Amino acid sequence: MSHEPDKPQIRMSGRTLSMKGRSKFETSPIVNFIFEHMLHLLDNPVRRLFNDPIKTLKGAGVRPGLEVLEVGCGTGFFTIPAAEMVGDDGCVHAFDIIPLAVEKTAEKIRDACLRNVKLTKTDALETRLPDERYDLILLFGVIPAPVLPLEKLLPEMHRLLRPGGSMAVWTGLPLWSPRQVTKSGLFTHVGRRNGVHNFTRNG
User: Fold this and answer.
1) Longest pairwise C-alpha distance within the chain
2) 158 φ, ψ (degrees, to nearest 5)
3) For position 109, which CATH number holds?
4) Burial class (CB in 10 A: 0-12, 13-18, 19+), 163
5) Is 164 within a domain?
6) What pLDDT sits at residue 17?
7) Measured between alpha carbons, how far is 93 from 178 in angstroms, rounded to an integer?
8) Cα separation of 106 and 10, whole Å?
9) Regarding predicted confidence, which is higher, 98 or 4?
10) Domain count, the chain
11) At what angle do helices 29-42 and 99-112 cross, to 10 degrees?
12) What's the predicted TM-score (pTM) here?
């Protein structure tokens, strides 16, 4: 499987986003300020007591050799264990639109000496990544969100998945309905495991 495992790839510069208002969101000091004050919650060891990242990733079907795309990596809570689980024959491409999130995740990647992670600052609605590249896409804690309308997000995720690929959604919301995804016609819900809703790509 082709990926770039030889050295950590961390692209911090990102790009200027074309959508109206999005570049302001991307570089907003307010957004970074809010995220910075969320760090103690996102990285609190207590979080692992009710949100075990390895258990959640197993529920998503993460396994050795997969090429995985993580949308909205945050502080790297799932990124690091995902990279360890896919192993040297796999690859994790993690991204976030918030610069501080990318910086925090980059620190963890370096500390863990991981060589199978690519990290970028990217917009989930317009990633400009290659078609049909990934075996599995992780949407963990990123939907539902007003800034990620599903009518725009799902076609992009469908484009990025290989035929037969899977998308895993974890929301932390017990009443969230997978119909929010399946009504698009782009994905089929195939079950729920360890709190993770799993979907396969249609077409």
Assistant:
1) 42
2) -60, -40
3) 3.40.50.150
4) exposed
5) yes
6) 30
7) 24
8) 7
9) 98
10) 1
11) 40
12) 0.84
